[in-house]
Every structure is written in structure tokens, then in C-alpha cells.
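tmp note - peptidoglycan lytic exotransglycosylase
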Amino acid sequence: MSRQFGGVALTLMLGACSGAIVPPAPSSIPVARPPGGAGGKTTHHPVRDTAPVNIRQADGRIVAALPIAPQPVVVPTGAATAQLAGIVAGPPVAALPITDAQAVAARTAFALSCPGLMRRTDGSGLTRGTDWQGACTAARQPGDARTFFATWFEAVQVGDGKAFATGYYEPEIRGSLDQRPGYAVPVYGRPTDLVDVDLGQFSTDLKGKRVRGRVEGKSLVPYFDRTQIEQGALSGRAPIIAWAADPVEIFFLQIQGSGRLRLPDGSVLRIGYDTQNGRDYTGIGSLMRQRNLLQPGQASMQGIVAWLHANPEQGAALMRENKSFVFFRELDGPPQGAMGYAVTGQVSAAADPKFMPLGAPLFLSVDRADATGLWVAQDTGGAIKGANRIDTFWGAGAGAEATAGGMAARGTAFLLLPIGTMARLASVAPVAAPPASIAGAAGASPRP
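out:
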């Protein structure tokens, strides 16, 4: 949903959003070879059964799951794309513990994403648009969904495969279409004087980089930051879509990127991310941790919100340290991901398009049963950067908020690519072999 950052649990991390895009990598791709070496034979670790997705005990405790261990490989330092990080074969898709419900939902989301998947240039360097044609055609045909994935896809591990998954959701907050007692926080649309600049039009060295600002005299200057906006800098410069009741609620809705305003008459207005002021994002949870403001058990979104409400003056100053500010637009349908398609709770996920093609399925095998399963990478996030960094979308409602707000799962990610991709890449690119110290450990099963 074009969020500033992914997963509210990430408020505990430093995560400025530069917006810079890494220049395209060389055309060759190292296909990482796991230990065991000669002849390139892949050693698969046994696939472990996990509890079904969405399982929570009645008292709200999380059900643990044992992740599949990743293959030990050496990843080149500073690898900026999957093309440079390398890939290694994962377990057979048919052996992955995918439930029927997951497969059906993921096939629907994948089919929805297919036009964009085939049209877009894959920033990861792993696939071409035509590679997806067969699977996309088959996704629209009737038949068993699990068989569909086992027939058309092969699982690969990108880089070291070590996944970290957070969560996001579609929040619902109190709002009003007009300013009235109890509703005093403006929800702004895109300012008329906000300028987007594609720096690549000025220099090839800056290709893919953009800045946002405003014109002052004859100069382009940074756009107003959060403090300036809250002090009235947007007067006459930006439309006000609605008025929120709580500054903390709208702050976190900006982080999520889209949400619902529950109006006084009970109706709902959906709003979504339009643009941002160009300022760097600062995670206030990280600041709170550094300043010892959070007690044990307060690291979730819910704990941070409770602290901000309990300390309104200090909380307002703390939120202003995040200079980034999001502008919204009205939505006439469900929230959309970065591909422009509707995202689906417990199916859609955000990933870094430099490491996973947007629209591709992926399987998460992590230490939480509710996040373990089949997802489709239909979205991006400002802090969702790097290989195997995933942000899972949980939909709307109290359950979605509870799950997403505390999601922090670790394990292994397997990207699902059209069958034959590994062989094609291996035939045109050098193979990265592990050092002897690792190669000598062939067959060893590392800790998950």
C-alpha cells in the first residue's frame, strides 16, 4: 500500500526511507551452489510439518512453528539485488506444507497480479515477463490449487534465505468530514505546491532517484516537515479530506499507508496513500527504546500507542521527530498495493522488488504458525529492504491489528519461480561456490 515502512514492529528499528533506487546490476547472475559441491547436487533439508496458518490459542498466545532450515551459502558482500545475492534450489513445492485454503487464495491473488507481473521489468534480475506466461494462463483454469503451484513453480532460496517478517493491516480510526468538537486533526490530500523531481532526467548517474520539494523563489527547497505542517504550513496549500479525532491514530494510519475513517453517522470513508513530503522517515519506537521509554512487553504497536496516549505532550514532541508526513486520497474500493491491485488479508505481502519480483508467490517458513504459509508479493514498503525481508498483510479489524502489531517472525523464505528458471540462469551465468570450510560441511543441517 506504498507505506512509509513495513510492519509496526519495525518502529523499534532505524529505518530512514531514502527513496534511492540501486542502479541495474550486471546481466549475469550467480546461482549460489550449496555445500556438497561436485556436480552441483542440491541437498534438501527435510520439510517439517507446521500448524495451519491463522492458529491462535483462545487466550491469544501465539502458536510456535519450527522453520525449515535454509541452505548455508555465501552471499557476496553488499549484494544489491537477487541477481547479485544468488539463488539456490529450495525444497520441491509439492513438499511444502501448503494448505488447500492458502493455495486457493494465493492462486487468486497471483492471477490478479499476472498482467503487471508480465508487463513489469523484474528488478531482481531473475525473470523475464514471458517466463510467467504459462503459469499465468494456468492460474485462470479450474483445478486443484495445490497441484497448480506444484506443477508450475520451483522454490528457490534468495541469498542466505534468512527471513524476517513483520505485519501490517488496514486500520480504522475515528474521523469526520467536517471539523467539529472532538475532530480537530486535519487529514490532508496532496499539496498543490508539492513537486516531484526525477533526477534521472538530469544525469544518468542519478537514474532511478527522486526528490520532493517546493519552489521558493527560484530554488527548489525541501518540503515542509511534520512540525511545520502541524503548525499550519499547509494553510491554503492542501485540501483537507477529513478530520481525525486522535493525532496518535492518524500518525499510525500514515505509517500503515491506508485505512478507514469511521464517521459519526457510522459510515466509512476509505483513504489511501497518495504521496509523501520527501523527508526521511524516523521510527519513533527506536527512539523510545534508545531513551528507555518502553517497558518490557511494550514493544508492540499497541504498547507504543498506549505510551503516547499516557504521555501526550512528550508523545507529540516524539512524533514530530519523524519529519516524514503522508498525504492521502479517497479510495472507492479496497486498499491497493504497489502494483495497483487490491491487497488481500493473510495473502498479500510486501517485499523488496530488487530481491523478489512483484506479483510472485513466496512461501514463508517461520517460527510463528500464523505467518507460515503461501503469500504473494503484491506490495512494497519504505523499510522493506533487502533479501527475504517480508511484511505480511492481515486485512482489517481487531484481529488483524493484534496480529500485525506484534508480528516479528524469523525463519526461511522461499521464492516461487516458474519451473525452468534455475536451469536457464545456470546456463548463462557463473556459479558461486562456497568456500572450502563450508563445502566440507555437506549434508550438515544448520540451526533454523
